[in-house]
Amino acid sequence: MGILTGLLATILVFFSIWRLDHHIDSRLALLESPGTPLYSDTYLVSPGEKIPLWLLHTWYAPSEEGPARFPWKKHTLVLRGLPGPDPVPKASGAFNATFYYRLVFDHRNQTLLGIFPEGVSPDGPPPSLPGLWLPPVFMGTLVQTVVGDFRPVALGETSKKLRTTILTSEDRRFYDHPAIDFEGILRAAWADLRSKSFREGGSTISQQVVKNLFLSPRKTFSRKIMEAIYAWRLTRLRTPDEILSLYLNHLDFGSGAHSRIIGIEAASERFFGHPAKTLNFRESALLAAVLRAPSRNNPFRDPDQARTVRNRILTSLYQAGKLSSRQYARDRRSSLGLSSLAYRTSRPGPYFSDWIAHEIRNHPVRDKNGSSFVFTTLDPYLAHRSEKIVTEELLRLARTWRLSFRPHDGEGLQAAVIDMDPRTGSVKTLIGGSDYGPSPFNRAIFAKRQVASLFKIVASIVALTPSGGQKPPYTLASPLSNAPIRLRAGGRIWKPKNAEKVLEDQVLFQDAFVHSMNIPFLHLSETLSPQEVVDTARMLGLETPPAARLPLSWPLGVLPQTPMAMARVFSIVANGGRDVQPEGLPDPGRKPGRRLLDPGVDYLLNHLLRLTVREGTGAPLQFWTGPQTFWGGKTGTSNRGRDTWFVAVSPQNVLVVWIGFDDNTPTRRTGSQMAVPLAGAILRNLPPPLPPGPPPPGIETKTVDARSGLLALASCSPDLKVIPFLSGTAPPAETCLSPSPPSIFERIGHFFGNLF
């Protein structure tokens, strides 16, 4: 019996080792691959467009076929592409374009003057093409679940000084010890004990490879045991040189100016502007310093801290006999030797790239594109312009309203921006913060914030939608109470107020929405079914508690949502009421979403949104779009301006803008003052929306009295409104009311309301 038990135990051990080795081999095959290149969508450039020549040169120079095909001549650039604007090609078609065109710029290299086929006859200037679809722009390499600047190289393509520095800093006995270095662990523990801080680690390079590339980062005892077992087997499956090469190629140097920096080759190019095979001891020590704490020791953000840690590593090299006294003294005094231009090399859409990596974590990329490349929906130039606008506008807003803004530290005022095609769900731009480098947290998809008055779109859908063959409970002309209201919440009495003083005791539904009044919508909410509200919100993709736990203040948007969730909601409204999912990878097999909103109700909602920009809280947008705009919109402002929102809506684009502080510091400003200016600056880069089409069947327009909402004759009062209704829902009879003039108290109230 004992022999049989021992035999079974032996078989089980060998089987476990075989399974572990198979898992490690499979993982290594993936890690040793060059990664998956990620590209933007194709995009159209036209004569007269302001697009800098240097930007196109930065995007395309590394991918073209040498200087003959890409001459760096004054005011001229030669690029591959497809004539436009029609037909619109697929990204893969523009990517594989074989014809070259000459792009001619103005004397400042900022405005495109003309597009001409390369090699045309010199007999007179040829006519310019109306447009050119340029190839997708390289955005980075997808490595596991991260998109970044990744350039794997063989170990022999790195300098010996670099390898010496890394081994001295991280694992001095790498070539002598097995997977675990007990002597190194004791030495690190003694050094930490003497310094009374955790300054050194005891993990070998093999353990670090396992920790970073095979296991989760959680610090638990069981994970530490697994780390040792994996490291032991890794040293049996790969030589020390292969393990060191894997380690160097997957080092994470944190977020650069426009993308994550992965691997020693990318780090050398981005920090110093030359390949890793030419790194000296001084540069290698700086990279080792960054490696220890990529954010804290980043030399572009804190050069003094980076220099201190670099010199500490140089001291270790000197004590180990790798540097002479003269060289050690010279390197300690030397500058950091950084290449600012290389570090800030522009890559479009870093937040968008992170979102793509997050989205395809569990989805094979080949299912989307059918190739080893990944083409996305990003508009690279719109993304580039929007990122610049976000930084400029946040700086202007911070100065205007005296708010904190420190973009180089990733602190202070922040923003999230999403531009989405509501017809397809294609996300054209996604920005998750003020500056990706110091603040890579993607607020556009992960930050849950109070959406304030944006949530009134849900209340409006419930109130205006017919149910069970019955008429809807409300129309746009329904009067809503504006009487002061008291609500008990959390054992305290809450007295909500409107953002603007409105003295009338009742207002029309349309006016309450357009001017974003809180009190009328709270009165409205008391008549709506909480279950219908929850069902409608969840149908639109929003997160809500069960109906029994729905807070009384739900119409004011106290339920936190992400900007991406709000982009989906307003895209459903913008596209005619059909379901749509935000997507960053084009799906040629996409089918139209199922209808979620009644076409007539959707028409009423878009009427409200356009009216909000024409005469409501979104009216400041006209400064950027002009008064005859067809944009719709909705503002939102949470308590004391902790969250400020604006959503611009058209059948072709939905733009969501959020501005606020990560720590909920009040801005004490409104969405009209904060989010609308940023949205307006971005909308200048988008084509103006087309005029709205005719209303769908079942819509009729009536003239009503602006105060009562009842049907009125033109001779009744000059204060009339033309309002659309679902057929059969307008007031039944014409009414001629003689509106009473405002009382003296109303006049005084209006006077002081206009002042304050």
From TrEMBL:
Protein family: In the N-terminal section; belongs to the glycosyltransferase 51 family.
Signal peptide: none
EC number: 2.4.99.28
Catalytic activities: [GlcNAc-(1->4)-Mur2Ac(oyl-L-Ala-gamma-D-Glu-L-Lys-D-Ala-D-Ala)](n)-di-trans,octa-cis-undecaprenyl diphosphate + beta-D-GlcNAc-(1->4)-Mur2Ac(oyl-L-Ala-gamma-D-Glu-L-Lys-D-Ala-D-Ala)-di-trans,octa-cis-undecaprenyl diphosphate = [GlcNAc-(1->4)-Mur2Ac(oyl-L-Ala-gamma-D-Glu-L-Lys-D-Ala-D-Ala)](n+1)-di-trans,octa-cis-undecaprenyl diphosphate + di-trans,octa-cis-undecaprenyl diphosphate + H(+)
A GO BP entry: proteolysis
Uppermost EC category: transferase
Recorded metabolic or biological pathway in which this protein acts: Cell wall biogenesis; peptidoglycan biosynthesis
Lineage: Bacteria, Pseudomonadati, Nitrospirota, Nitrospiria, Nitrospirales
Domain Penicillin-binding protein transpeptidase positions: 418-683
Ranges of residues in domain Glycosyl transferase family: 151-316
UniProt-recorded Gene Ontology molecular function terms: carboxypeptidase activity; penicillin binding; peptidoglycan glycosyltransferase activity
Keyword Transferase listed: yes
Pfam family, one: Transpeptidase
Species of origin: Leptospirillum ferriphilum YSK
Matches recorded under InterPro entries: Beta-lactam/transpept-like, Glyco_trans_51, Glycosyltr_51/Transpeptidase, Lysozyme-like_dom_sf, PBP_transglycosylase, PCN-bd_Tpept
Annotated keywords: Carboxypeptidase, Glycosyltransferase, Hydrolase, Multifunctional enzyme, Protease, Transferase
Protein name: peptidoglycan glycosyltransferase
